[in-house]
From TrEMBL:
Family of this protein: Belongs to the 'phage' integrase family.
GO term, biological process aspect, one: DNA recombination
Cleavable signal peptide: none
Single GO term (MF): DNA binding
Keywords: DNA integration, DNA recombination, DNA-binding
Chaperone recorded as keyword: no
Designated name of the protein: Integrase
Domain of life: Bacteria
Domain DUF6538 positions: 35-88
Length: 619
């Protein structure tokens, strides 16, 4: 690219051609001195290390010779990279040993002098450098207000790694450039080189080993940012003074072990919620890294939540396809990122549940008790996006009266599809709650009222393939709407009972305990086939699947001046939540009272009477 630009400059430049080419081919941070005395190097110092470096800008004269100035500018770019990295490592890295603050600030008289550099000392220094660099990088991420820009970070790693490679290959200037970082690392861990070693061949060897260790650490960082396996091993002892070694303690619970224990003890009936935990918490572990739970901080939570906000929808599919890390995906520009409802309802909710469990179970072994997921959503997607809406009367008519439905209602083998839609329409229940109904246990008649029981109780003759659940955790008994009774739902249920069926729709096999997974997909596909799926109202809310029937029941109920939340399973709250907790809903709203409310629900459509069994309960 540079070569093409230079060629273009040579072709177009006339008398001032040399000057034009100078401007085009100048290295980064090099510019003409405004006083007309040659070239200069100018580079701003990042805000997070200005205090450590002691200036806001690197500024040096480079002389008037363009070629010499360019070479010197490149050398200064590498050198200032190293100084910035050293300052960040000094500010943010966490020493491996305990008592780090005392060691870092300890006067030289308290440091242990190193008189001999053997292979054991070099090995410990190597491990210490790798741990220090990784710790420093993590703390830099956690202290930031925004997620790390991965491409820029990879460029920075490459620049410093080249400087380390030069030192490892024996370049004198590069070797000496690592002296300050080596001294700082040794001092932080309680050591200093004896006076006799300073300036010696042994010190030069140690500097080369230090640069080599730093390069290995950068290789590891690069792999972590790219989502690849780490090329470096972290086993081995680090530098530490015998006098400062902590007393032996029991193993501290690590974050990975805490997450595994949490996932292993989830209630099996909460399948959909458990899937969220199984997706979110491993992602949290990848982004913040494994660590003792005693080191978990609010900055880790913030870092994770700021990062996932920048991910695109269905990012896990992209990750599998492109083999990229979460951070690398989040650093890319996407036309669309996670919606507010997904961010709050999936990521924040799952992490909040894990933190709550951690405080309850592990605070005695150091789990922090003040963590919060109250990290603001910075995206532009609103909470109502992809929200479903209620069906209009003409849409209900088109669902139950078309050529495809005519075949369904006439076929005993397909009629269960009609019953799924009809029950969704007149109960507003969640598709899983409907499909897990046990014909042997979850329906009946009392005082002339036919009823359905939405419950997570197993009951008699339960289906071993179904894990029953109620999202609110509160079972409810609801009356059948008169329209369901008119078209023969009791007769359909009785026929299933006689056949020994243990779930409402035996033709659809459960998916990992969820009896509503396959039926829910069928409903969405059926709505597509008749042209209703995706049709939006003025607010952008559309018909998308089974959940639209919940909106339909509640909306038409309110349109008829009746509250049907007791039917759909939504908790009816007053302005006093404390009092709500004391009230017995079974006394406040009896089955007969629900019948009165349900009578007011009128869609203005009479459903077709499907093919049904012969018997005393058939219409």
């Amino acid at each position: 690219m540079v070569q093409k630009r230079v060629q273009k400059a040579v072709q177009t430049a006339k008398k001032e051609g040399n000057a034009a080419m100078d401007e085009i081919t100048m290295p980064q941070f090099m510019s003409k001195n405004p006083r007309g005395t040659g070239y200069q190097f100018r580079r701003g110092v990042p805000a997070d290390v200005r205090t450590s470096i002691g200036k806001r800008e690197f500024k040096l004269a480079l002389g008037g010779n363009f070629q010499v100035a360019s070479q010197r500018c490149r050398e200064l770019a590498v050198e200032t990279d190293r100084q910035i990295a050293a300052a960040r490592a000094s500010n943010t890295s966490q020493p491996v040993v305990t008592g780090e603050a005392r060691q870092a600030s300890a006067p030289n008289v308290l440091l242990t002098e190193v008189h001999e550099i053997d292979s054991d000392f070099i090995a410990k220094l190597h491990t210490t450098v790798i741990e220090q660099v990784r710790h420093g990088d993590k703390n830099q991420r956690y202290r930031g207000r925004e997620a790390i820009n991965v491409p820029e970070k990879l460029q920075e790693i490459e620049r410093i790694r080249n400087w380390a490679a030069m030192a490892r290959n024996g370049d004198k200037i590069a070797v000496e450039g690592w002296s300050g970082m080596l001294t700082s690392t040794l001092k932080r861990n309680g050591y200093q080189l004896a006076q006799a070693l300073r300036g010696s061949q042994e010190e030069r060897m140690l500097l080369i080993e230090y640069a080599s260790a730093y390069r290995d650490a950068l290789d590891t960082l690069e792999s972590e940012y790219l989502g690849k396996n780490s090329p470096a091993a972290f086993s081995g002892m680090t530098l530490k003074r015998p006098a400062l070694e902590p007393a032996p303690t029991q193993d501290v619970l690590r974050l990975s072990a805490a997450i595994n224990e949490f996932l292993a003890n989830l209630p099996p009936e909460k399948r959909s919620v458990n899937e969220k935990h199984g997706f979110v918490l491993p992602a949290f572990l990848e982004v913040v890294g494994d660590m003792p739970i005693t080191e978990l901080r609010q900055s880790h939570v913030k870092d994770f939540l700021l990062t996932v906000q920048k991910l695109p929808p269905r990012w896990s599919e992209l990750r599998k396809r492109d083999n990229k890390s979460i951070r690398l995906l989040a650093s890319q520009e996407w036309p669309e990122t996670l919606a507010l409802s997904t961010y709050e309802g999936t990521y924040c909710s799952s992490l909040r549940t894990f933190i709550k469990r951690g405080v309850a179970d592990w605070q005695d072994v150091g789990f922090p008790t003040a963590l919060t997921t109250n990290i603001s959503y910075l995206g532009s997607r609103t909470k109502v996006e992809r929200k479903q809406r209620a069906l209009r009367t003409h849409e209900i008519q088109s669902i139950f009266f078309n050529s495809r439905m005519e075949k369904i209602v006439r076929s005993p083998e397909k009629v269960h599809k009609f019953w799924l839609l009809a029950i969704e329409l007149y109960t507003g229940a969640r598709v899983r709650e409907i499909c897990q109904l046990n014909p042997q246990y979850d329906w009946g008649e009392k005082n002339g009222i036919w009823w359905l029981r939405i419950t997570d109780e197993v009951g008699a003759k339960s289906d071993p393939d179904v894990i029953k659940s109620v999202k609110t955790g509160k079972p409810r008994t609801i009356p059948m709407h008169a329209e369901l009774v008119r078209i023969g739902l009791p007769g359909y249920l009785e026929s299933l009972r006689k056949k020994g069926a243990r779930r409402l729709f035996p033709s659809w096999a459960p998916t990992q305990g969820d009896a509503g997974a396959a039926p829910g997909k069928w409903v969405a596909n059926y709505l597509r086939s008749i042209g209703i799926h995706g049709v939006a109202n003025e607010l952008g809310n559309a018909v998308r699947g089974s959940h639209t029937f919940r909106h339909t029941l509640l909306t038409h109920g309110r349109k008829n001046s009746v509250n049907l939340r007791c039917i759909s399973g939504h908790h009816e709250k007053s302005d006093n939540e404390v009092a709500d907790g004391y009230e017995d809903e079974t006394m406040l709203l009896k089955l007969a009272d629900m019948v009165v409310r349900l009578k007011e629900l009128n869609y203005g459509v009479m459903l077709p009477v499907p093919a049904g069994p012969a018997g005393s309960l058939a219409k």
